[in-house]
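Lab notebook, page 48
Experiment: co-folding of the full assembly
Goal: obtain a model of how the components sit together before planning crosslinking
Operator: M.T.
Materials (sequences as entered):
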Amino acid sequence: MISKDAITALKRFGCGPRRGEAAGLASPREWLVAQLDRADAARIDDADLPRADQAQRDHVAYRRERKRQLRGLDKDNREQMDDLKRMMGPRPAVDYYSQEINARTRHAIETDAPLVERLVGFWSNHFCISAAKNGRVRAMAGAYEREAIRPYVLGRFRDMLFASAQHPAMLLYLDNEKSAGPNSPVGRRRSRGLNENLAREIMELHTLGVHGGYTQEDVTNFARILTGWSVGKVDSPRGGVFVFHRRVHEPGAFTVLGRRYGGRGVDQGEAVLEDLARHPATARFVAGKFARHFVGDGASDELVGRLAATFRETDGDLRELTYDLIASDEAWETPAQKLLPPYDFIVATARATGWRPQERQMMKALNALGHKMWAPPSPAGWPDEDDAWVSPDAMLERLDWAQRIARRKAPREPVDRIAEDLLGPALDDHSRQVIARAENKGQALALLLMTPGFQRR
Amino acid sequence: MVLSDLSRRQFLAVSGGLAVSPFLPGIAGASGRDPRFLTGILRGGVDGLAVVAPVGDPDYQNVREGLAFERSGPNSGLRLDGFFALNPNMPQLAELYRSGEALFVHAVSTPYRERSHFDGQDVLESGYGRSGVGDSGWLNRALEVAAAKKTIDSRGFAMGAQLPLVMRGSAPVLSWMPPAFQTASTDTRLRLLDIYTHADPTLAAAIAEGMELDDLVGGEDSAREVMRQSRKMGGGGKVRSYRTTGTVAGKVMSDADGPRVGAFSLNGWDTHANERPFKGRLGRQLEALDATIGALRTEMGPVWRDTVVALVTEFGRTARMNGTSGTDHGTATLAILVGGAVNGGRVIADWPGLSDRALYDGRDLAPTTDLRAILKGVIGDHLGVSEAALGEKVFPGSRDVRPVRDLIA
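Observation: model returned without errors.
Model output:
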């Protein structure tokens, strides 16, 4: 007999059930709590994946070489272009991107600590970058998540905030490498100026939230303080990593949220980050997002308040935050409502059916379903409301994709038995009947993958 | 500064700015018609000087060396007036220009003055004065305002896997894309609809609407049929896929019960290398764009006379050719209005000239017309949106940018 809690643990807090998994889950809450000691499960150990600095170097080297080779070639001459392609080998911006997608997906499909992987998904979207920014960011999009997000999902919020704000992917994505203090040595000589993008998004999206009580003056001053936070030129000794350029740093002390920050180096900005991480508005904003991500849009103020208090009292300990969420009855009693985002749907399908994506298949499926990996529509990340992914076209596309997988993985045994095994009480009687009466097993499996019981968590 | 007298005069004539919004409540659309408005986002930065060339500018041949229209022969282009000529790869657009149904706006740009695609498209589509401000688009907000007056259907339409920013917002949007996978049969769809009708009304509504939209396009196998027909009509892969976009958008937007406002995107304009505006890369792009316009014209049928299609891009490109026979990211460029409701047959340009001193930052065509003034004029006069709403809601903070009137016939 499959308990409702087992399904909640596997779906709401996991990456979806595998065959037989729900029946074997005697104490779902303990199973989740045990995963909180599995910080190592967030790591992807794959020696072939390049670090962010290496990815950038390879990307820039490729572009230079291609430009050199293109001289004297005719771009419309297919033969010449094919030769060039063969000679140049794979483009890092595409190749690394695709490899990283596969590594992440494989990890999510195979992991035995799926809660940890869900935390990665949440925080990666909270501190999102976009692979659509340019080839350089795309080449290191996966490295960003491995370096700035995964090590900290059961650690401290402050550490993740620092790691993301000082990661080359974030500095390039939000243009801070271009920002120069108007009174800095470089700013005075050339007419380069302030870019507020990173400062604003850190306050609005990463810490305080848009109603967090900061002003435009706070943003501008924080942007001044962040001038000089940049990325080393790829040919330099600190190529492709975080550097502090003193010569573009705006000199002086500035006030942010009522506190004056002196100092002349990277420590000035770090002091602001420390305070933002500990600000009560940050606790509230982060707790609200976190609760709604797992429990749904209707997460109670009481639950959010409790998580915010934990966040404050533990100095942003994300393990404690997660523990409190799992410990709340609300998280277990609220019916499943959030429609799986396409990535999560694909992963859940793989876990349920045994299907495994081949090279580039994952990237293509994500693009077709409108969930391009690491490429959300804005710095606010992918939308997270319960029905954010419901649209006529997207649902039909999902069905088409489900049918494609179901045909390949058409099972021998009756699909209603598989349905029971995977979803137990989460499957309503009517869905069960429609599946049982399907024309063939392929259709039955496709319908199962599309039921509300499978699609909502 | 070199001026195209004709263009200058026309520009002044249409931007007098004294006209009050002619919208009368209770009439369908501002002009008494049942308006259709489509926006095509040309992504990558269109080299406007290679599409509509200022062949009468004395600096033109010099600045555009390697990319210029020839003085005679097949690559001399189609003369639009005494000053401008159209790229010869766009015969269908030329025909519409001759019949007064196409209008070009040159030296136009959004308020964005840097050179990132990402931010440039953000400004182009969000309708805000700078990037990273909003997560909704001006077209959706315009639809919201127009639909609130109940003059047009409240649903928007978009082509593509991802809703383009310009069409995102609170007005509901039907989106359609050529299916990436083999489509599920109607039988399977109906069985799923049965499941959802009992258990999940939200998902049921989505599936039902999706099936309705497929019917607008022409039924279950429509997508494959559209693509098959496009293949029969010939042309390269790009021409075929662009034409499909035009055909599908035309089918949906011409339906009596369908949406009235829509958007689509056409990629591939980022011509950094081997641009070749006649027989090469850009030449093919323009040929494909021409096919899109032709397909739209055909599919819209009788409602073409109520239609405006705006074709816009995030920025232009450098005036001079770069070291790889292409052009780099620039500033001002071209915008195209086409459709039976367009008061066309002319080029609007406050021409800045192409001399070294006239170029923006010494490298780009200088912007002299704010794209928002054009779009505000179209939305105001075609969809009946008030100037106040245009300045505050549709293009926030643009009150000082006066709509260009007289763009709608």
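Interpretation: Residues 5-179+261-394 of chain B form a domain with the Alkaline Phosphatase, subunit A fold (CATH 3.40.720).
Next step: discuss with group before ordering constructs.
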